[in-house]
Amino acid sequence: KNIILAIGAFIAFGIVGYFLIKDASSMGKYLFVTLIALIIAGIIGIFINNPIFHTVITIVSLLLFLLYTLYDFNRMKRGQFSPRE
Description:
- Helices cover 80% and strands 0% of the residues.
- By secondary structure, it is mainly α.
- Helix 2 (27-47) runs antiparallel to helix 3 (51-78).
- The longest helix has 28 residues, at 51-78.
- The model has no long low-confidence stretch (mean pLDDT 91).
């Protein structure tokens, strides 16, 4: 069930990013800052043994992954990437 749910969410956010969102380029800087904050929170989480803290990190990570999916599909649609990428 979890794998099917993850695949479905990936497909749904990909479709939304490709067909429904016109321009998501402004999201990139916020997504990157959230990623850095999540990495720092993960390092802090090694020393904190609080299940709620780890649950929040997991939920934010999942949301960040789905938003990056939306952002990347939108970039592919608009052709905003260099040949190296």
